[in-house]
Write a structure and sequence with these properties.
Order of helices and strands: HHEEHEHEHHHHEEEEEE
Number of helices: 8
Number of domains: 2
Helix content: 25-40%
Strand content: 15-25%
Largest sheet: 6 strands, antiparallel, barrel
Number of strands: 10
Length: about 260
């Protein structure tokens, strides 16, 4: 019995250590994420056109025509943007290389961890470009081919979390944790949901925040919008996140949890 108890304690301790190490605050980055340079020039396109009335109530849905060919990749785009931030360095002073060489470099970036950043000395150099935005203008199809298909959104290992009820205390802790992680300069992939309604089931990249007397406003790179940042607002009194209306969501309260952090997310 003693040996069994010791084994159980050892297993519990091992699991606890795994959780702690997998969810630890990432090392500080030497630079900050910038929407103008660290995002893709293209967007994750919408399959549907959503129609709303003057009160932002959805009235109907119709299929987008012509049918877009790059859809259902919100996790793909959010994850890839952070992987380039974590593992690549762009150097416009170096001469350009050919398509084969650029493809190999992109494959190397995408082959790195989606959860842990590389050290500065181990980052992959992307020559001839100042950032991901300009790089993706010239090599859009190459990036779309190499960053992954829709299955990466469907099979993201943390999707199970959305079915468990979200408490206000849990959302308050998520808001605090996001703010803490952003202080290190590293953007965070967030899964934004309304379950079981599924009026929104979306991944975004949170890269900055500003505190106010009412709570905190998070600046977000939305894969569906490559034109400008959007705001995800946390109301401290209600302990709720809010997303403003856009072309695919009528606006309102959403639940948020992190993705690509621990072994189970």
């Amino acid at each position: 019995m003693m040996r069994l108890g010791q084994s159980a304690c050892s297993l519990a301790l091992g699991l606890a250590l795994l959780l702690v190490t997998s969810c630890a605050t990432p090392q500080a980055s030497s630079r900050s994420f910038k929407f103008e340079t660290d995002t893709f020039s293209y967007r994750n396109e919408l399959v549907w056109v959503y129609h709303y009335d003057e009160n932002s109530v959805k009235t109907s849905v119709s299929r987008r025509e012509p049918r877009p060919d790059y859809t259902q990749r919100c996790f793909v785009v959010s994850r890839a943007a952070r992987q380039f931030f974590d593992h690549a360095v762009f150097d416009p002073s170096q001469p350009a290389v050919d398509a084969k060489a650029y493809r190999k470099l992109v494959q190397q970036v995408m082959g790195r961890s989606a959860r842990k950043p590389s050290s500065e000395s181990q980052r992959i150099v992307i020559p001839a470009y100042a950032g991901l935005r300009s790089f993706s203008v010239d090599w859009e199809q190459l990036l779309k081919d190499e960053c992954g298909g829709p299955w990466r959104s469907y099979l993201q290992c943390g999707n199970w979390r959305m079915i468990i009820p979200f408490t206000r205390g849990q959302q308050e802790r998520t808001a605090a944790k996001l703010a803490q992680q952003l202080e290190s300069g590293r953007p965070q992939v967030a899964h934004v949901v309304r379950f079981p309604q599924l009026t929104i089931n979306h991944a975004m990249l949170v890269y900055d925040s500003v505190e106010s007397d009412k709570g905190r406003t998070y600046l977000v790179y939305d894969p569906n919008d490559n034109e400008h940042p959007v705001e995800l607002v946390f109301d401290a009194a209600k302990r709720e996140f809010f997303l403003r209306p856009n072309e695919y969501f009528a606006g309102g309260m959403v639940n948020v949890y992190p993705a690509y952090q621990g072994w189970c997310y």
